Amino acid sequence: MAIADTSEITLEELQLSGRNHSIPLEALKHDITPIGLHYLLIHFDIPKVDADTWQLEVGGLVETSLTLTLADVKARPARTMPVTLECAGNGRALIEPRPMSQPWLQGAVGTAEWTGTPLAPLLEEAGLAAEAKEVVFSGLDRGIQGDLEHAYERSLPVAEAQRDEILLAYEINGQPLPPQHGFPLRLIVPGWYGMTHVKWLSSITAVAEPFTGWQQDVAYHVRDSEEEQGEPVTRIKPRSLMVPPGIPEFLSRTRYVEPGPCAIEGRAWSGQAPVSRVEFSHDGGETWADAELGEQAGEFAWRGWSCAWDAAPGEHELCCRATDEAGNVQPAAPEWNWDGVCNNAVQRVQVVVRSAD
Fold first, then answer.
1. C-beta atoms surrounding 220 within 10 Å
2. Same domain, 131 and 253
3. Among residues 248, 224, 247, which one has the least CA distance to residue 337?
4. pTM of this prediction?
């Protein structure tokens, strides 16, 4: 991944941003994100899959290899869960110098109700061998990255793969998965960044050694240089986002607000521990006030928050930051790394409060 000139968006980045999209921040008002507003990151091409001939292969270090049709998967016990998904690169475009990849601002997130069958009973049925250390999930999407042709594949440690809440999902918000969301079947790993949720799932394979596929061993690491291995990206760091108040100027997106009482609302989430606090600032982070936390849509879903702001005429920089029960707090500024991942710096919204006259 190259370092891009922060003063110029490249043609390559425009190509990526044209096929991937973030959530409009005003859509944070929805407890459950409508399908068309949920963020999308698609590494290669969207495969066209025939549901009548598609099969899921479960094999590797198991006692009994399994082959399941979509009907077989749907016949298994089902569960529906609201889960917040966030791309590991969310906020990349706000890092300087900017790593060249999908130029996310802060909207690479969404919360949907996913329906599927839990993974753990399927692994139990197959019978994981004692020497199995990881479970590899392979998708049908294929391309070239890092000069290597490969299918998109990721792995989880066996203990993680056996968590009760991990789903093989075939529905989103009560509807069959659309092609861009991984039809006919995808993995949902609550609490982990989006790269883990393999789409267009084709096989599940138990292995004895750490998986070294490109998307696992090279991509998605926090590192200071291209030569380093770094630390792998796993669970989502705490983040809060506000619905920008008022109305926007078309190009700059600067917000214009009337003076007086102004209701601020937003969402907060963390994959490391439940969110325990959200703070709001109207002066660029010089002073902070606690927001009121709302109900959480689910154990692995974002939590609403709100606060009242007495908007005085002039220019303001609004900020919000979340803290989770493990004590993790959003930093004031981005923490640079080579791949531009895990940037959970506080959101900053430029607001002009009109004169009272």
1. 21
2. no
3. 224
4. 0.95
